[in-house]
Amino acid sequence: MTQFATALFDNDGCLIDSEHLHFQAIDAVTTEHGGGHISTHEWWEHCSGKGHKAIYTWLTGKTPRFGHAISENDFTRICLASYERLIDIGLLRIKPGMMEVCQRIQKTGIPMATVSNTLHDTVVKGFNSVGLLPYMQAIICPDDLPIGMLRKPSPAPWIYAARKLCGGSVKMTNVLAFEDSGAGVWSAYVARCRVHQIRYHLFESEKYVAPANPCAVTHSATPTQLLLAMDKLFPC
After folding, report:
1. Torsion angle, CA of 118/120/123/128, rounded to 10 degrees?
2. CB of 42 closer than 8 Å to CB of 213
3. Do the beta carbons of residue 11 and residue 152 sit within 8 Å?
4. 103-132 burial, b for 16+ CB within 10 Å, e for fewer?
5. I need a labelling partner for 169 at 20 to 30 A (CA). Which of 38, 65, 104, 111 fits?
6. In terms of C-beta density within 10 A (0-12 exposed, 13-18 middle, 19 or more buried), how is residue 137 classed?
7. What would the 3-class secondary structure string for 18-33 be?
8. How far apart are the C-alpha atoms of 15 and 114, rounded to whole Å?
9. Does the structure show a pLDDT above 50 at 12?
10. pLDDT tens-digit profile of 163-184?
């Protein structure tokens, strides 16, 4: 019998290996509208784990003329459309090891959901592309949240998702959250989830290993480590 009431997953960079696709889409729009290229260092420092609103705010602070060239709504719309075109041509992949994780958790009978900063329809499109949709009992995105509720890195979406799946009496310490970015790990930790950090990324043909976050109870720097961690979290 599992110790957890539910398992919640971040989407981009955690369930699916999409960071490089979002980078490609956002960098192209930024460059076209006078914001200049985004370096990989800037991406991990200012963009990874953030929604388009936060990225747009950072870009306009960095290059004010960018904010005059394109609105936040148009920036978000064009970036997501570009990202979805990359999905359409088959470039999206599931994160190594994550299908096995979903299959392992599904066997326990506990519900699963994703808590994402990407809009709902885009997440569904990606999940359909890689075969993850049947594993999720809920998809919680900014456009699914109650009016006025902040998106991640606020802890509120994690709490909202857990209560949606398990009811208002669920103990957040019995919720297992999977995240990759530092901001995401922090938000799940503040929500009082047990956090497992996915630290490995394939980005611009280089393996990027994120720093271990002290807020995470456990972490994996390789797919092999992830599956070994699942043996401990969900023993057969």
Report:
1. -170
2. no
3. no
4. ebbeeeebbbbbbbbbbeebbbbbbebbeb
5. 104
6. middle
7. CHHHHHHHHHHHHHHC
8. 9
9. yes
10. 999 999 999 999 999 998 888 8
Asked whether the beta carbons of 144 and 122 are under 8 A apart, the reply is no
Rg from Cα positions in the chain = 17
- Read off the pLDDT of residues 63-92 as tens digits, 9 standing for 90 and up: 999 999 999 999 999 999 999 999 999 999
User: Edge-to-edge, what's the strand order for the sheet holding 218-220?
Assistant: 138-140, 112-115, 6-9, 175-179, 194-198, 218-220
Residues 6+ apart with CB under 8 A from 127: 16, 114, 133, 136, 139
Which amino acid, one-letter code, is at 37? Answer: H
Asked if 199 and 185 count as a contact pair (C-beta separation under 8 A), the reply is no
CA quadruple 74, 76, 82, 84: dihedral sign: negative
Cis peptide before 153 (omega within 30 of 0): yes
- Helix H, strand E, coil C: the string for 173-204 is HHEEEEECCHHHHHHHHHCCCEEEEECEEEEC
Other C-beta atoms lying within 10 Å of the C-beta of residue 236: 6
Dist. CA 20–CA 31, nearest whole Å: 16
For residue 145, what are its two tokens?
Answer: 């949240």
162 close to 45: Cβ distance less than 8 angstroms: no
- How far is 25 from 47, CA to CA, in rounded Å? 13
In angstroms, what CA-CA distances link 63 with 66, 74, 186, 196?
6, 17, 28, 35
Distance (Å, whole) CA 109 – CA 2: 9
Encoding tokens for residue 107? 């066997």
Q: Report the amino acid identity of residue 101.
A: V
